[in-house]
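Hello again,

I reread your note about wanting to compare the complex against the isolated chains. To keep things tidy I'm splitting this into two emails, and this first one only covers the full assembly. Below are the input lines as submitted, including protein chains and any nucleic acid or small-molecule components. They are followed by the predicted structure of everything together. The single-chain runs will come separately.
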Amino acid sequence: MESKQVPIGVSARHIHLSKEHIAILFGDGAELSVLKELSQPGQFAANETVEVVGPKGSFPKVRILGPARGKTQIEISRTDAFSIGVPAPVRESGNIAGSPGVTVKGPKGEVVLEEGVIVAARHIHFHTSDAAKWGIANGDLLRVRVNGERPLVFEDVVARVSDSFALDMHIDTDEANSAGCKTGDAGEILS
Amino acid sequence: MESKQVPIGVSARHIHLSKEHIAILFGDGAELSVLKELSQPGQFAANETVEVVGPKGSFPKVRILGPARGKTQIEISRTDAFSIGVPAPVRESGNIAGSPGVTVKGPKGEVVLEEGVIVAARHIHFHTSDAAKWGIANGDLLRVRVNGERPLVFEDVVARVSDSFALDMHIDTDEANSAGCKTGDAGEILS
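Full-complex prediction:
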């Protein structure tokens, strides 16, 4: 049977901002500008960054990923979470209810978030055609072997399937470092 | 068959010092004092700490683990390595030849190391009797499942067997964070 190889994308800490928060942080009418297109169609790393301040420390330059979203969300690693003192839970993107907040500072203003800081659950974006070919359904939990410098098998890798996705496995920096892999390496779906 | 359960110990960044370096950093005749006994017989976390300085940053309080060793060795995570700009290789403890150096500062002096900074390869300490019972030999590479918040299977876990060891699996903070586990949790040896 064909090996189910998936390219790996390592997510460093980043933030998605709502339109309302972009206006507060960067000024009325401000828009994000594109630094680099990302693997998912329409998504981009912006030139703009913000400071993220927690009770024990801060990250002075956190990259904004665009375009604007309905709700502001910050994705950090567990190492980051300890570093700034924010007990971020492991969650799927978009599921921020009850997660801790943090203060976000931009050049024109700041926002005190009530919630929105998560550690993103590892996941694979599948285009509908990839998922169909491999018999994978949205929400499946997969096992993926990464044969890097420190080989391991990630379990509970969430399958996310959409016509608007491109095939890519997203893990955070803790996960990449413990596997000894980097963006552009490949993982193999075992089951 | 009996499940091969192993307690997990998460190693934060730490340093082992030679006698010569203890004298330079803390003064002639200085000795390490015991803060806490560790899982391995005779090993301890010292009250004393040092600053570790790399080209891109520093860690102001790195815990010393005693007793003194033949050679000074610093064990950091890959996240730490990026943070201070030191390209530490994944190595077994004691194998520091050709690894990068760093500057170590104590209250009485400093040492510029030519080598000694590694990312410790994940490993399990087995007492000889544990290893015999489970048919494991020194140097075996094992697969260990950790069923934490983010389940995964670590591969290439090095078996280290000695009469002077107590059963314990040592992983670093990146590995613990990506598994969602902590010291005192258990792993299961699969093969």
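For quick reference: Residues 122-189 of chain A form one domain.

B.
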